[in-house]
Design goal:
The chain has 281 residues and is mostly helical. 81% of the residues lie in helices and 0% in strands. The protein folds into 2 domains: 2-57; 72-279, MetI-like (MetI-like fold, Orthogonal Bundle).
Length: 281
């Protein structure tokens, strides 16, 4: 039971340290803001390791973090190839295409009352389609390689980005638009100099939501047909082999990649929307 005692002690110590840090002056600094989640994450890993080893949990049910880390170290080439196939080729390509198409469609909707009444309900219908139904169709249309996964990601990210962009384009008030009209500004001048800058918080909200959906969509789509590479393929193949450490290694890589991508979008948002109240500390 020594592992269990160590795990519980680490959890209590980490909890106490985080409470002290969150109420201290250092919590308002950048280092303090990073320390709290790091300490919390480490205590979760120590608790996981201690309970799995102390309670003799079978690695087939739940491997300890040390086994997952060892598998990551011994499978770096495989994990790297899977990451490139799924995250870069499938998820990132679909993310760029889907978000770009959503912004252009939102501008078209903003220009046309007909599209406002006709296209948004269709977009809502498409967003409600289950990914397990879309993925096999995309595989039949675009083949087994990354193109079909990118197509699934396009469908997944399109509607959240569209809704946020349409809402953002309506964020300006009548006085601001009237001021641009007194300057004889055209629609495109008003769009570029007033409405798109005002819509930036909404756009980045859609980009952050889509950043998490993109990787999930690409991984799930690989369950329905892919070449012998990719995160979804590896997870699906490892299930039949009872290689739980490999499954958790892929999950860890996907979680790190998704968190890094989300953080990058949030960092760009902070740089570009520094004027917005949500970015003030």
């Amino acid at each position: 039971m020594s592992w269990v005692i160590v795990a519980l002690a680490a959890w209590i110590g980490g909890w106490y340290l985080n409470i002290r840090l969150s109420h201290a002056a250092v919590a308002r600094t950048r280092a303090g803001q990073l320390a709290v989640p790091v300490i919390f994450g480490l205590t979760i890993l120590i608790l996981w390791e201690g309970l799995v080893r102390g309670l003799n949990v079978s690695p087939v049910i739940l491997p300890p973090p040390s086994a997952v880390l060892a598998r990551i170290g011994s499978s770096l080439p495989t994990l790297g190839a899977d990451f490139w196939q799924t995250a870069v080729k499938g998820a990132l390509t679909g993310y760029v295409l889907g978000c770009g198409a959503a912004v252009l469609t939102a501008i078209a909707i903003d220009r046309s009352p007909f599209l406002q009444k006709g296209l948004l309900p269709v977009g809502n219908f498409v967003a409600a389609l289950p990914i397990v139904g879309i993925a096999p169709i995309m595989v039949m249309w675009f083949g087994f390689d990354w193109q079909s996964k990118a197509a699934v990601v396009v469908i997944m990210v399109f509607f959240p980005m569209l809704v946020n962009t349409v809402a953002g384009l309506k964020a300006t008030d009548a006085m601001q638009r009237d001021l641009m009209a007194t300057y004889s500004a055209s629609y495109w001048q008003t769009l570029a100099k007033l409405r798109l800058p005002a819509a930036m918080p909404f756009l980045f909200n859609g980009l952050k939501i889509s950043s998490t959906l993109a990787l999930i969509g690409a991984i799930v789509a690989e369950f329905f047909g892919s070449p012998i590479v990719g995160m979804g393929f590896r997870i699906n193949a490892s299930i039949g082999q009872l290689a739980l450490d490999m499954i958790w290694a892929e999950i860890a890589v996907a979680a790190l990649a998704g968190s890094a991508f989300y953080g990058l979008v949030a960092l760009i948002e902070r740089r570009m929307t520094f004027w917005h109240p949500s970015q003030r500390r």
